[in-house]
Design a protein that fits this description.
By secondary structure, this protein is α+β, with helices and mostly antiparallel strands. The protein has helices at 2-10, 23-30, 36-41, 49-58; strands at 12-13, 61-70, 82-94, 101-114, 117-122. It is built from four helices and five strands, in the order αβαααββββ. The two termini are 19 Å apart.
Length: 126
């Protein structure tokens, strides 16, 4: 589930007819979240507009390939009902024209076991 959340949260389709903002990725990621994080993920944040406009201008598609999921150094040990994990990934940005580029990224997730299974309830250190 940490992999699915990360792919939903960090992949974007800024081509015409695709996503209209970063918040659309948040909507996809909310399917793997719970609690207050669910609403927070779907909010449009004005500070993200310049970066989004750059993606739109290039008609970029961003895809995410997970490289690892691990417990970060210094994090509490996982329990049967909660865990903190670090997901590392390669983000590939493919513009409509021109060369694609890759960058490495990571995100920390706090997971809890709910009646619906494991869900992300916080983004520690974000």
């Amino acid at each position: 589930m940490a992999r699915e959340f990360t792919i939903a949260y960090s992949s974007h389709n800024a081509v015409n007819g695709g996503d209209t903002s970063y918040a659309e990725a948040g909507v996809r990621a909310a399917a793997y979240a719970t609690g207050n994080l669910t609403q927070s993920l779907t909010q449009i944040r004005p500070g993200q507009e310049p970066a989004w406009e750059t993606l739109r201008a290039e008609q970029d598609r961003q895809t995410t390939a997970i490289t690892s999921v691990s417990v970060p150094d210094g994090a509490p040990a996982p329990t049967p009902s909660a865990a903190v994990v670090r997901v590392t990934f390669v983000l590939t940005t493919a513009p409509n024209a021109g060369n694609q580029r890759q960058s490495e990224g990571q995100i920390a997730l706090h997971l809890v076991l709910t009646a619906d299974g494991w869900r992300v309830d916080a983004l520690p250190w974000a």
